[in-house]
Amino acid sequence: MSTAKATKKSAFSCEPCRRRKVKCGGEQPICQRCATRNDECIYKLSPTLSYTQRLEERIKELEDQIANLIKSPPSVAGSSHSSPPVSGVQDLSSQATRHVADEHGIGRSFGNLKIDGKGSITYHGATSFFNLPSDRTGPGSSDLPFLDTSSSDTDLQRRERLIHNAWHQRAMENLNKIPEPFQYLLNVHWCWIQPLFNFIYRPAFTRDMQSMGPYYSHTLLNAVISHSIRWGRSDPSTRRLLDDSYQSGLVFGKHARSMLFEELNNGVCTIPTIQTLLLLSAQECSQGNTTQAWTYSGIAFRLLDHLGICVDSQRFPGSVPLSDEELEIRRRIYWGCYFWDKLICLYLGRSPSLKHTNISPSHIMYDDSAENDLWVPFGIPQTDPTWKYPPTTAHSATCFMSMCRLAVIFNEILVHMYDPLSQNTDAEIQECLNSQKPLLQQWWDQLPTHLKVDPISLPNLAPPSHIVTLKYVYPFALSTYETMRL
Length: 486
Prior knowledge:
The protein is mainly alpha-helical.
């Protein structure tokens, strides 16, 4: 799994190339060989199972939307566009209401998501040279309305589909045999890293690992394994395997970086590329390599913009239609990047890169199945062989969403009180002090009880590590606020 170079075969070959038994580039709609020979290029090979499943899911989603439209009367213009919270997860629209007038103004400059020449989703604003003049100046283009995607029925159905798929994929994980030390180190990642940062959507990653689907890459796997080694070496058998066959685990980091730079050199820009960069940034940060950590995160945030993940495209007509899973993955990686941006800026004393605006992805996690996962400190050696840490509810979904809401407050404090690139005036600092203090208190008051750790009456059993981290991030936010106030 740590091979430095992995080639992926084309899923389709056109009929003329198949008859001649020559390699087909698979370009759409006409491959390069047929274009050169001026032949009719026809693809007749049956599509893959995963492609067929995505089409079936899309058809089902469209049928549900049509059924809902038939049942309910058309909504009046100016209706609310904010989605209701799912499973107690609160939407940030409670903090910033989206006004219709603002939406029309934003619609004038929004360019929608498009498919580029390589078949990838990309985003270019209204001023981009990649937009045709007709795209920018077409009739009524400046007054495109926001799409209303707030149907509670649609949200419920989307949540049910995602959770059902998540549990199905979790069951499939138990059937898939992954050799050691890879399985052990993957379990380390799911225990210690995933609940805090949520960089990877587990159901899609584990499924596509078996089929080389779009949400898995060898580059990403090497980054996951490399980041997990610091915990994995506590297990004697895993440490022995790493020392004997994988240069004490160093080979995974080397392969992740070399394969990453090859992808970037070839113009490959995918969600696994962003996830790889984020994991490498977090790993370098934990090792004190601030230059590398800052650089990797910066590239990740640029690619986030390039793929249009920074915008909630589904609220605009004309954008690329995305499946439930694609929307969930893009929303999660946006908030994972947003949280990491504030964390690394706090650590290094720098200005944040990512902003949360009216067109940013909503603060919703439809698949909250990980909330009820059982958590144990995987890989930690037991000093007392007669006692084991009893499995406890992970609460990873509410913990991550609460961390992201706190990151929004962090952003305001960093920008208006600690921005090293601009001289914050006394009036600006005072205004920020007055506005963020009640928001910090509101965040704490709304924090679920199972996420609160009272230092006066500590529980007998230490909670999961991501909950402990949340407990320390909040006092740090308060101290950052109080330092400037004094």
